[in-house]
Amino acid sequence: MSPPFVWEIFDIRYDEDTFELKAAHNSSDPESGLEYNDFCLGYTRRDCNELSWIRLDFNPNISHITQLTDGIPIWVKIRAVNRVDLRTKRVADAPIIVDKTPPIAGHVYDGPLFETDLMYTKDSEQLCSNWHRFYDQESGIGYYMVSAGSVPDINVTDVANLTGYDSKTHEVCIELTADNYLKHGQKYYTTVWAFNAGIKIRNVSAISNGVIVDLTKPVSGSVKDGMNEDFRDIRFSSSPAKVEVQWRNYSDPESTIQQYDVKVQSAKLVQLYNITFRAKQNNLTEVSDHFFNLKVQIL
């Protein structure tokens, strides 16, 4: 003689209004057949502290009225009993959680860097976003869905339709099709939906404050050697270890100027120095290098 087989427990459902719990199981006994299918509910894979074992006549579909405790993982267990009282128990692959509240919305930022919000983007073929502080204290976050649109409306998905991501994802770059590339000067918004892991899935959404597409280069200005107050260019310098330069009238009508890159090159193209720094208008900035001291004035 051999005990029964319980292959799986699946299709677990719970009605929060009627308190009806339903589950299906795949059980069999090729020798004596099945007489009963007992079931219980526990807070771990090993106990039956939510509902003690109940004996039911064998049926592949179980239904029982019981009010489940909110916010606690509950494991469904089934015990198949054959006609000679041999038994086999199986636990569901995952617990169920009754969660009657939606998740708490977090923040959605534009751009690929976590917790960094961009005002502008130079990309037209993809739209990046990141988010954090979405949470659900009862059942946790089960998964996210992300969409993008050209207006600040969570239901507008004219740029990218809803796409699902697992609960560990917090930044994405949506690749766009050729007929949906981002347009210069247009503002775009990303919406993130968070779904909890309750038996009855609930969700919450948040939308970014938008990112403006800038596909054009800045407007070039004027550069002069030296630090003459009248912006005159000098031809000679008495310092072998210091370079002074000033410039003005660089501009960008869409995204403004964020950073300047300075290159210092010898007259005979023997040596090239690259220096990158951030500077604001009307600031005097001095940058030191291993080879020389660079002093710049932005007007």
UniProtKB/TrEMBL annotation:
Domain of life: Eukaryota
PANTHER family given in the database record: OS03G0226600 PROTEIN, OS10G0105400 PROTEIN
Name under which the protein is recorded: Jagged 1-like
Source organism: Mytilus galloprovincialis (Mediterranean mussel)
